[in-house]
């Protein structure tokens, strides 16, 4: 196939370890199966779960080294499996795929099951789309589980992170009356900008229990959590009987249990219907994507050092191709 070389640049690890283990490799371009697409990657997301995998956590089976990290990203379709419908060469797409036995998105090419791929949302460019494969699906599927009615008071904890910055916008668009618990003054500022109103408090430095009490004196309908700990537990205390606390697996510590309050956990799911709902929500909510930093592929180790230093507001991405670097 013209345009697809035999080898590619990829940021990979030869053993589990610290950020310095992530180095530039030249690796074979992965082959595709009949239900897969080959994507020429433009932008890859870099997130805490990638860092956990780099450090030694592997969800299933035994990983093969060199191991290319990366669970999501965007790009252009470069090959189409024989049984794939709905995608053609050159389509601009984004994807969430985890784990990736043939290698992840920190590479010039990635092979992904077509079910894990969506068309680039029309409002977003490839860089923004590359940032939201995982976070967008996780945010939407969390908000959908909250079960609130219009104008119900809803609290979102961890609102200034990768998933939270999207969830606050979607929950507001779906009609919730939101209080966003963000991290630091910069987190509060960003979230207020994203939702276009003063809806945010600093969960690291303010009295969350008091703030939630004045936000919803009769109790809150639901909590969506992307960070655990005291701030989350203070919110759980103020959920009305019959209300819900929703969080994706991975949020630690898990929220405390309270009788009369349902705790719902979930994992983000990909699939054609999930991408359609997300694309529709992105359009209708006029979603903005907060990218806090972008690193070229060859500086993937630096991106992971930045993740390790904490307090990432929004999302970190890798620009896989030089063309991605003009923002
Ligand atoms: N199971 C799944 O399918 C799935 C999918 C996606 C994500 N997840 C999980 O969901 C969680 C969120 O992911 P993410 O990418 O959004 O992570 P993230 O970008 O690190 O966001 C978490 C945010 O919570 C903030 N935070 C921590 N303590 C807080 C407090 N007391 N008050 C206010 N904010 C606070 C953090 O701020 P600081 O950095 O300043 O502490 C950070 O901004 C992670 O645990 C991840 O593993 C699970």
Task: Please tell me about this protein's structure.
There is one protein chain. With 327 residues, the protein is of the alpha/beta class. The chain folds into two domains: 7-132 and 290-325, Alpha-Beta Complex (Quinone Oxidoreductase, Chain A, domain 1), CATH 3.90.180; 135-266, Rossmann fold (3-Layer(aba) Sandwich). It has nine helices and 16 strands. Strands 3, 5, 6, 7, 8, 15 and 16 form a seven-stranded mixed β-sheet that branches. The protein is globular and about 65 Å long. The two termini are 30 Å apart. The mean pLDDT is 96.
Write the topology of this structure.
Blueprint: E1 7-13, E2 23-28, E3 36-46, H1 48-55, E4 67-68, E5 72-80, E6 92-96, E7 109-113, E8 117-119, H2 126-131, H3 133-145, E9 153-157, H4 162-173, E10 177-182, H5 184-195, E11 200-202, H6 208-215, E12 220-225, H7 230-236, E13 239-248, E14 262-266, H8 272-285, E15 291-296, H9 300-309, E16 315-319
Parallel strand pairs: 9-10, 9-12, 10-11, 12-13, 13-14, 15-16
Antiparallel strand pairs: 1-2, 1-4, 3-5, 3-7, 3-16, 5-6, 6-8
Helix pairs in contact: 3-4, 4-5
The chain binds NADP nicotinamide-adenine-dinucleotide phosphate (NAP).
NADP nicotinamide-adenine-dinucleotide phosphate (NAP) binds at residues 47-49, 134-135, 138, 157-158, 160-164, 181-184, 203-204, 226-227, 229, 231, 248-251, 267-268, 310-312.
């Amino acid at each position: 196939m013209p345009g697809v070389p035999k080898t590619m640049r990829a940021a990979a690890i030869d053993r589990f370890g610290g950020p310095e283990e992530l180095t530039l490799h030249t690796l074979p371009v992965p082959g595709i199966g009949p239900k897969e697409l080959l994507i020429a990657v433009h932008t890859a997301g870099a997130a805490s779960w990638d860092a956990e995998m780099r450090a030694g956590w592997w969800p299933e089976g035994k990983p093969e080294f060199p191991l290319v990290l990366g669970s999501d990203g965007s790009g252009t379709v470069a090959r189409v499996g024989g049984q794939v419908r709905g995608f053609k060469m050159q389509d601009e797409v984004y994807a969430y795929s985890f784990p990736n036995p043939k290698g992840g998105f920190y590479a010039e090419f990635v092979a992904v099951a077509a079910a894990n791929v969506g068309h680039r949302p029309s409002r977003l460019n490839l860089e923004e789309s590359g940032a939201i494969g995982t976070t967008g699906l996780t945010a939407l599927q969390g908000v959908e589980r909250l079960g609130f009615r219009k104008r119900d008071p809803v609290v979102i904890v961890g609102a200034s992170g990768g998933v939270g910055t999207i969830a606050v916008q979607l929950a507001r668009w779906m009609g919730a009356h939101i209080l966003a618990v963000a991290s630091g003054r910069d987190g509060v500022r960003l979230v207020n900008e994203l939702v276009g109103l003063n809806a945010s408090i600093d969960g690291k430095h303010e009295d969350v229990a008091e703030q939630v009490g004045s936000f919803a004196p009769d109790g809150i309908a639901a909590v969506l959590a992307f960070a655990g700990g005291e701030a989350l537990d203070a919110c759980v205390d103020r959920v009305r009987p019959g209300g819900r606390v929703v969080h994706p697996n991975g949020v630690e510590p898990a929220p405390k249990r309270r009788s009369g309050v349902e705790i719902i956990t979930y994992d983000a799911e990909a699939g054609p219907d999930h991408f359609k709902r997300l694309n529709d929500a992105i359009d209708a909510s006029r979603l903005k994507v907060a990218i806090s930093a972008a690193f070229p592929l060859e500086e993937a180790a630096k991106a992971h050092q930045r993740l390790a230093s904490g307090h990432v507001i929004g999302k970190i991405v890798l620009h896989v191709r030089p063309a991605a670097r003009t923002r």
